[in-house]
Amino acid sequence: MLLAWWIGRTSILVAGFLHRLLWLEKLLGDGFTFPMPKCASPFNSNPMKDDPTTVSLLLYFLLLLAAVGCNSIGQTLLKLGSGQSVLNPYIASGLLAYSIGTISYIALLSKLNLSVAYPVVIGLTIIMTTLSGTMFLHEKVAPGHWLGIGLMLSGILAITSAGWRQ
């Protein structure tokens, strides 16, 4: 019960933080940029549709992290709440986490290509959910499953290194 309260409270704080980040990007607009030297950026292939800046790279990384993290937390909480009444704190917190993850994903889609954003978010969510199930729910994962996780990571790496632009 305390875990569900803590996760619910954290989800509310994350939602407020994401709101402030989106507000900051809107406030700064396209005219405000922090130039980055080409060698300092891990994204030399220009993954954003617009010019990459320090603010936008940080924003999109945080949105990706929020989408994947909230979806994984939502899955874990729904698993903890399964088999109980529909109105329990785990399910309510899981749905809240999913809502925040969806909002983060929609914000991420505003600047990234769908053909890149969708497989990266879904692939990383599957990986994080597997790790969460192993660590927090003490689920056993077969070696073939870990092989699949490795293949998914290489697929995500291939998608992101092929370029994020259309």
Could you please describe the fold and organization of this structure?
This protein has helices at 2-28, 54-81, 89-109, 114-135, 143-161. It is an all-alpha fold. The N and C termini lie far apart (46 Å). Residues 27-50 have low confidence and may be disordered.
Number of helices: 5
Helix content: over 70%
Show unreliable segments: 27-50
Cα shape = flat
InterPro entries: EmrE-like, Small_drug/metabolite_transptr, Small_multidrug_res
Keywords: Cell membrane, Membrane, Transmembrane, Transmembrane helix
Main location: membrane
Family: Belongs to the drug/metabolite transporter (DMT) superfamily. Small multidrug resistance (SMR) (TC 2.A.7.1) family.
Descriptive terms for the model:
5 helices; mainly alpha; 70% helix; 166 residues
Question: What is shown here, in short?
Answer:
The chain crosses the membrane at residues 6-23, 57-78, 90-109, 116-138, 144-164. Helices cover 70% and strands 0% of the residues. The protein has five helices and no strands.
